[in-house]
């Protein structure tokens, strides 16, 4: 079946979706609905991938829940209710203290053993623990407690609930790519006793509608990639358009951000090509010339480049200039200086890493990471995403990008470290010594296993700092904040079973196909 054939699939009528959407809004807004029921409804909405449709209604409902005495009373004796309350208030930017879980500890300061009798409560507490801030010891304890108990429960509990537990223990909801998670949860929710059939029907129609839109986006960006012609001209480079598009979907899947998604796919493709130029093909002298050309952003620099670099630089130059022109035309903002800066910074760091590789230099871990979180390309992707999606570009945001704020650093560090965890063995075999694993091993004289454990813990620490940043940051709007956390999510998804860009395996292909190409979700 070709992509074109698949796009001809029957698309759910928007009118049907709107009717169901209004019915769900009514449930969220209904004064007669119990607050505890609304809290569970919000949880179901989020897990089914419908949160973007109910942002305002969810906010209003949470305002009521935050003040509800019934919820507060229930929280004292229900770990499930307390965990849902904490998770959704924190997820939506409310200041809520982790101390609300102190009530579930015994006189020795440990979580009560009796909590393990409530499987769903334990699962909810486990999920809540992944919204922790750095230094929240009680949530670290909650994660350790629930992880241990949930693993012990496997094989003793209902098969469907067991599947949910295994799924969460593999990767928690906060860290999962949203579209993949929506599909998994729709199929799981369909098997659930007492499932809200109206909500389920909306989730299925929404998923299929979004999937159809993504297929159209992919078809359009495929035409761009064919016209650019880099895949034919640069035989050494990875031709991974599908994986690049999957990455952009992971960052922003909502229908209203189609242009942003297509733009990010173009940027991701150019990053992949240029990364291969620095990693695989170019000599140091050629790489220095290319870096200088990008830094100068001067079309006249073409005459000093070898032929394969000329087409690469011209594709970059034209694509970025066109993006900047579109923003200037539509919004009146001059963003070319910001875009060219992030590309120049990326190429300078690529060059630095190439020199490390040529000289077999192993930098100190701190030096490697201070370089690596930016060379991951995470900041570059996020800066482009901001301009491609935002209708309210501010001067404060423009200025903040010059110094790469924490909002960009935390997800980009997760990006870099997730990449290194997946790729380090292959890189070490090829003699590419500059990665987080080998740098930490060399500097500290430890085994690869110890280094991997340290890197995994460092990823977790960056998640905690990002959780805090998402609540405290007031410079950017909610939509962009969501894209930043989505960068971390797609990075962990992308590298979960190896490097999906360099060597896409069957698991990665199935994820792309289920999310984008093949079967829609059936009733």
UniProtKB/TrEMBL annotation:
Domain named Terpene synthase metal-binding: residues: 226-464
Keyword Metal-binding annotated: yes
Cofactor(s) recorded in Swiss-Prot or TrEMBL: Mg(2+)
Keywords linked to the UniProt accession: Magnesium, Metal-binding
Residue ranges annotated for the Terpene synthase N-terminal domain, each copy included: 14-169
Keyword Iron-sulfur belongs to the record: no
This protein's name: Terpene synthase 02
Molecular-function GO term, any one: metal ion binding
């Amino acid at each position: 079946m070709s992509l074109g054939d698949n796009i001809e699939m029957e698309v759910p009528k928007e009118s049907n979706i709107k009717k169901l959407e209004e019915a769900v809004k009514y449930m969220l807004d209904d004064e007669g609905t119990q607050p505890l029921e609304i809290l569970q409804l919000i949880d179901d909405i989020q897990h089914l991938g419908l949160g973007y449709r109910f942002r305002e209604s969810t906010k209003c409902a949470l305002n009521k829940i935050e003040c509800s005495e019934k919820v507060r009373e229930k929280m004292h004796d229900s770990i499930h209710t307390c965990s849902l309350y904490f998770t959704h208030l924190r997820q939506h930017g409310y200041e809520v203290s982790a101390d609300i879980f102190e009530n579930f500890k015994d006189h020795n300061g440990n979580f009560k053993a009796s909590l393990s009798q409530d499987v769903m409560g334990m699962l909810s507490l486990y999920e809540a623990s992944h919204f922790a801030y750095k230094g929240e010891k009680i949530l670290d304890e909650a994660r350790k407690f629930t992880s241990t108990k949930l693993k012990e429960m496997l094989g003793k509990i209902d098969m469907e609930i067991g599947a949910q537990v295994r799924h969460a223990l593999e990767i928690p909801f906060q860290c999962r790519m949203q579209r993949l998670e929506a599909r998994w949860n729709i199929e799981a929710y369909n098997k659930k006793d007492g499932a809200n059939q109206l909500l389920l029907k909306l989730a299925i129609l929404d998923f299929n509608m979004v999937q159809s839109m993504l297929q159209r986006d992919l078809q359009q960006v495929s035409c761009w990639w064919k016209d650019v012609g880099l895949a034919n001209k640069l035989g050494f480079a990875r031709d991974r358009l599908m994986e690049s598009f999957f990455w952009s979907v992971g960052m922003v899947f909502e229908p209203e951000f189609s242009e942003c998604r297509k733009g990010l796919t173009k940027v991701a493709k150019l990053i992949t090509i240029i990364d291969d130029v620095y990693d695989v093909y170019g000599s140091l002298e050629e790489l220095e010339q290319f870096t200088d050309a990008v830094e100068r952003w001067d079309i006249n620099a073409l005459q000093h480049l070898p032929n394969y670099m000329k087409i690469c630089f011209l594709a970059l130059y034209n694509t970025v200039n066109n993006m900047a022109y579109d923003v200037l035309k539509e919004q009146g903002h001059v963003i070319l200086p910001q875009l060219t800066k992030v590309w120049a910074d990326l190429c300078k760091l690529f060059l630095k890493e190439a020199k490390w590789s040529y000289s077999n230099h192993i930098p100190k871990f701190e030096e490697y990471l201070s370089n690596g979180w930016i060379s991951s390309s995470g900041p570059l992707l996020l800066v482009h995403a901001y301009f491609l999606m935002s209708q309210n570009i501010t001067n404060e945001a423009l200025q903040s990008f010059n110094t790469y704020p924490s909002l960009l650093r935390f997800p980009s560090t997760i990006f870099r470290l997730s990449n290194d965890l997946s790729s380090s063995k292959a890189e070490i075999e090829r003699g590419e010594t500059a990665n987080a694993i080998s740098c930490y091993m060399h500097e500290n004289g430890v085994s690869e296993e110890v280094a991997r454990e340290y890197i995994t813990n460092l990823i977790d620490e960056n998640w905690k700092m990002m959780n805090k940043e998402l609540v405290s940051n007031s410079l950017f709007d909610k939509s962009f904040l969501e894209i930043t956390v989505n960068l971390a999510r797609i990075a962990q998804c992308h590298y979960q079973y190896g490097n999906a860009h360099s060597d896409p395996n069957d698991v990665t292909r199935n994820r792309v196909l289920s999310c984008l190409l093949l079967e829609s979700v059936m009733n």
